[in-house]
Amino acid sequence: MAVGVFDSGLGGLTVHQAIANRMPDLPLVYLGDNAHTPYGVRTHDDIFDLTCKGVERLWQEGCDLVILACNTASAAALKRMQETWLPQNKRVLGVFVPLIEALTERHWGDNSPPREVAIKHVALFATPATVASRAFQRELAFRAIGVDVEAQPCGGVVDAIEDGDEMLAEALVRSHVEALKRRMPHPEAAILGCTHYPLMEKAFREALGSGVAVYSQAGLVAESLEDYLRRRPEFLGSGTQSRFLTTGDPERVTSKATQFLRHPIRFEAA
To answer: In which pathway does it act (predicted)?
Structure first.
């Protein structure tokens, strides 16, 4: 009954932790493609190929349903995977849908025409590849009209987090928020469009100032997954063991992940 969680590196651990807290009896297999992180500066073809390889590895672990706990992979690869690559007996889900459900206050199964929503000015902080894909804006347009989205590519933040350099990550967050606010001085909401960014949520909130609603994905994804599995239990896979896998050096990734989550965690070679 295992579910897979895939990320380019360590950021997806925020999603994994939220799912594990919400559904403690659900076996989860996490795969971090640390050998190829960050994805945010790669081409869409490269991201597609790497994501497919990662998902196939999770299938080997008995995970018929895989969560792409990576906004870059969700933006650059998911639609193509679902349309051209995915077998009928498997499912791959991204992290945008729960976020847009929350932002627009409507369930994804609601297929009525787009309508106006309360929030009109949205700041999107994401990797360069996610911003370039315009996937967030495209999905939002299916559900809402009249929303102004200003996107800020946050180069360097993922690298700093993966390297454990919190001071650099905080400085980069402040710089990126300042750059966005020069174009959109008064956002009503901010989207942390990368699963690494919740670790810097305090820095984002301080830089944005009070009065800006900050949407972070981990809890929303966990809630959405629980609902999905309730409706589609056939996609609970055959796997029974929870594991943490990496394409990188397991000892190094274990050390970084323990620092990342502030509790012990052990990675194995994928």
So the answer is: Cell wall biogenesis; peptidoglycan biosynthesis
Q: Check if 63 is active-site.
A: no
Confirm whether residue 196 is marked as ligand binding: yes
For the chain, what is the largest distance between any 2 Cα atoms, rounded to a whole number of angstroms? Answer: 51
Beta-bridged to residue 214, according to DSSP, are 190
Overall fold of domain 3-94+218-269:
Rossmann fold (3.40.50)
Per-domain boundaries in the chain: 3-94+218-269, 97-215
Question: Is 195 known to sit in a ligand binding site?
Answer: yes
Is residue 84 within 8 A of residue 27, CB to CB? The reply is no
Per-10-residue mean pLDDT of the chain, 270 residues long, equals: 94 94 96 94 95 98 96 92 95 89 77 88 94 91 92 94 90 98 97 90 96 90 92 90 96 91 92
Q: The pTM is what?
A: 0.87
